[in-house]
Amino acid sequence: MILTAQKALPLLAPGASVILNASIVVSRGFAAWSVCSATKTAVRSFARTWSADLNGRNIGVNAVSPGVIDTPGYRLIGLDETELTAYFAQTANTAPIGRNGVPSDVAKVVSFLASDDSRFITGSEIFVDGGIAQI
Predict the structure, then answer these.
(1) Cα–Cα distance measured from residue 8 to residue 33, given in angstroms and rounded to the nearest whole number
(2) Euclidean distance between CA atoms 112 and 41, whole angstroms
(3) Fewer CB in 10 Å around end: N or C, the chain?
(4) Which pLDDT score, from 0 to 100, does residue 31 have?
């Protein structure tokens, strides 16, 4: 992420957006997620500090923090279909909204941040988590 940003930032025009992928593990303590939590905390910090670093360039830098998003990657972690179904049922029950996310939930937030509609938002973290990290 750092190397990509270093190469991309000189190419970005005023009004551009940088959108970083953080995670809800930054806000809550989840067992067995310490390394992910630490690295995503750094991502969140970059959103804040890069916003300050880019002061005057009119480039927004924000972080998106997804919760449990049902993506094909979950089918690669070694759980059988019964275990995966149980996992998704359990995580849906922890979300105040009562379900897990789907990729389009995150894509819509990223599209908003990439649009001119978000031109007055920078240094922020937007949670796309059904309320897990909020309540």
Answers:
(1) 30
(2) 23
(3) C
(4) 86
Domains of the chain, CATH where assigned: 16-68+102-128 (3.40.50.720)
Q: How far is CA 3 from the centre of its chain?
A: 19
Nearest to 41 by CA among 52, 55, 30, 56: 30
Computed on alpha carbons and rounded to an integer, the radius of gyration of the chain in Å comes to 16
| Helix%, strand%, coil% for the chain, nearest 5 | 50, 15, 35
Closest CA to 61 of 133, 119, 103, 135: 119
Instruction: Give yes or no for a contact between 63 and 122, defined as CB atoms under 8 angstroms apart.
Output: no
* Cα–Cα distance, 76 to 87 (Å, whole number): 14
Q: Give residue-wise pLDDT tens across range 97-125.
A: 999 999 999 999 999 999 999 999 999 99
The model's pTM: 0.92
Below-70 pLDDT ranges, the chain? none
